[in-house]
Amino acid sequence: MNLTTARGMKSEIYAPVTPPPVWAPLTKPLKECRVAFLTAGGIHLKTQKPFNLAGDYTFREIPSDTPSSELMCSHGGFDNSDINKDVNAMFPIDRLRELVKEGFIGSLSPVFVGFMGGGGNVDKFREESGPAIAEILKKEKTDIAILTGGCGTCHRSATIVQRAVEAVGIATIIIAALPPIAKQQGAPRIAAAHVPIGSNAGEPNNKEMQTAILKDSLNAMTKMEHFGEMIMLPYEYRHNV
Amino acid sequence: MSITKESANQHKNDPAIVCCRTTKGTVISPSDLEDPAILPDLEESGLVTIPENVLKIGQVIGAKLLKDIDGLTPITADLLEGIIEEKKEKSNVENGGNKVEKVSGNKEATFSGGFVRLSVDQMNGVNLEFPVEVLNSGLIKASSQAPAGKVEKIEDETVNTLKRREFAVKKVELGKETSFKNGVLVIREALCKEALKADPLTKKIEMDIITPDNRHQYSNTIMDVIPIAAKVEGGLGNGITNIMNDVVFILTGLDENGLQVHEFGSCEGYLDEKISYGKPGCPDQKDIMVRVHVTIAANTGMERRGPYAAHKACDVIIQEIREVLKKASASEAVKEEVCNEVVRHGRPRVVLVKEIMGQGAMHDNVMLPTEPAGVLGGRQNVDLGNVPVVLSANEVRDGGIHALTCIGPASKEDTRHYFREPLLEAMANDEEINLVGVVFIGSPQVNDEKTFVAKRLGTLAGTMNIEGAIVTTEGFGNNHIDFALNIEEIGKRGINVVGVTYAAYQGQLVVGNQYMDAMIEVNKDAGGFESEILGENTICPEDADRAVLMLKTKMAGIPIEAADRKWDNAVIQANQKLVK
């Protein structure tokens, strides 16, 4: 029996390749750097308009002195229970303030940024939101931006924003729960711990792990020399949903 | 980014462009060159313009650079000393030689496995034709997993049967006692209260009936569409199942704060506008809908326990209907269908791989419940670690999957979708192939686990002695990592793979690999978006036909053309035309 076949069939979906490099060297020691944190994981102030869960390219400015109790998550792409327990699992704002106090980093950018990268409109992030966020950070004289993704398409959106920020001369690193996406989408620097999406920055209420992930990522930035470098971090957390 | 020596060899005829700033005196090596695979991207973004006189990679390796050049500069003859002369292969190029790389003929049905591969470095005007029968004549000994030259007879062997009795439902009403007589289904209203006991997180349950002529009604987001079916004899996948036609349950949910139990958008809105009627996972135009609306505890909508509680409560209501359906007399059935599970000896063994969500919250599925499309008695793939689990075709047809994932409504597969999965039917009913089973594999939350389960799938596929596989995934985003890994793990074992997913514009793939060269797009939205219309971007029979044809074409060794860089519906329509 012969197989029914057809000549001239064409594959219907493009499998992507990595975009061109973008790179801004880190030129200062960490303790002199002004650091910003960005997340695509849907974090915003409780008083701000929640994100449209169907896809949203807008972003929310979050003052870096905001108490973590005033933050919340609007994101349906992953189990929210870890963030509901401790927002630092996605957006480690308390940990960063501690790092300043400790003298590990110089200061915090007055403005952090939250957006919801899930299902996001790629062109809008690339052409509008990414450059707008980069401009804000540049105005605040930011030296380093650290990002977290969230879900799968969040990692894509986060990497698009990361590249826009790197392109204006700010050194960036993404703390990725899904490093293959960050890598494929062209993240300049990647740190990856063994954590589930939803607690990308470390186990909720585990101050040691969250601090270590931040410190290791920042230290890695001082050593990374090439576009696309990735470091695996030795922290593991399994979320029993 | 620099390339490796192997890559340089593979791309020796592609343009040579330096990846980074390169200084005078450098002897060009692969590590100085940009990856040709990303040149189209670089050109598109305007970073590189490739001149006509650019040298090829094969010409520049080992040559010395005469001056400093910036990154992404195309290498031309004026920049180098010691260029390797291009070998003139005039006759080849002009006659279209070098195009033939392999000739495969492994699909004669009387010959199980085995292939002939002809590698051609230079070929000039050769037209190679020979009857495929030569494969069976013993002239060519082929080696494969099957013993060489062994003839397997073409015959069908029925190994299992499932009888489905369908009962027409003309009317559904709420009443004092659940009953099913003369086509009228009465559902006991008090069940709404009793079903609260199913889980302490369920706070309130409401139920109403929506007839086909009264569809312009507001609805909260639809979490699931569930058929009513009950085992009369045997277990899931065999014996007898009674099914109610023309009626279907829809489950909707809110939490106590009024938040929709949903994720990437919801299909809340008017029922006549927010459902792609007739899709495998949707109500049909003529269906009566029994709507169960569950309110769950505040803030549990995005945690695994919340949506699961709603599904359990709904199942309690359906179970009472199943009990009366079991007693329906066979003589009242409007249709009796026998689903045979057939081993098609002598034809290529193929498998269907269904990737399902496995990340908690509403990203979970119940596998193999006691009753068709039920909840109780089943195991959730998250609890099983998302490892691949094989179901028979009849187990799937008999409601072996209860989906907890009907959110991101346009591209997710709900319970009714699995109950009548068109790709399964297309593969099971195709007499040219031998469907050996359906593998369900979860998409884990942790990246390391994604690799773990994909490798298990690859090993499983390797032991199944299959020649082809179709891999599908619902939704988009992080599950596309699993999708890419799963295709790679199967593909690298020499098994032909076709991938099926929604990607289009909004869901465009976030990762890719060389084995993803035969892909089927299931998008139906004009703009390529996750449209928030229930079931719109799920697999329908036309998609299934294209996927099966593409798999058979690939198995026959006929090339599938490479995809365009951007989603274009015209490509899909052109493929559709090739389906007879």
Brief account:
The complex is a heterodimer of chains A (241) and B (580). Chain A has helices at residues 81-85, 93-102, 122-139, 152-167, 179-185, 207-223, and strands at residues 34-39, 43-45, 59-63, 71-73, 107-108, 111-115, 144-148, 171-175, 189-194, 229-236.
Descriptive overview:
- The complex is a heterodimer of chains A (241) and B (580).
- By secondary structure, chain A is α/β, with parallel strands linked by helices.
- Chain A has helices at residues 81-85, 93-102, 122-139, 152-167, 179-185, 207-223, and strands at 34-39, 43-45, 59-63, 71-73, 107-108, 111-115, 144-148, 171-175, 189-194, 229-236.
- Chain A has one domain (30-236).
- Helix content of chain A is 30%, strand content 20%.
- In chain A, the strands form two sheets. In chain A, strands 1, 3, 5, 6, 7, 8, 9 and 10 form an eight-stranded mixed beta sheet that branches. In chain A, strands 2-4 form a two-stranded antiparallel ribbon.
- In chain A, β7, α4 and β8 form a beta-alpha-beta unit.
- In chain A, α3 (122-139) crosses α4 (152-167).
- The longest helix of chain A has 18 residues, at 122-139.
- The model of chain A has no long low-confidence stretch (mean pLDDT 93).
- Chain B has 580 residues and is of the alpha/beta class.
- Chain B folds into four domains: 5-81, Antifreeze-like/N-acetylneuraminic acid synthase C-terminal domain (Type Iii Antifreeze Protein Isoform Hplc 12, Alpha-Beta Complex), CATH 3.90.1210; 97-146, no CATH class; 161-332, no CATH class; 341-578, Response regulator (Rossmann fold, 3-Layer(aba) Sandwich), CATH 3.40.50.2300.
- In chain B, a hairpin with a 5-residue loop joins β10 (229-233) and β11 (239-245).
- Chain B is elongated.
- The interface between A and B is large, with 61 and 90 residues.
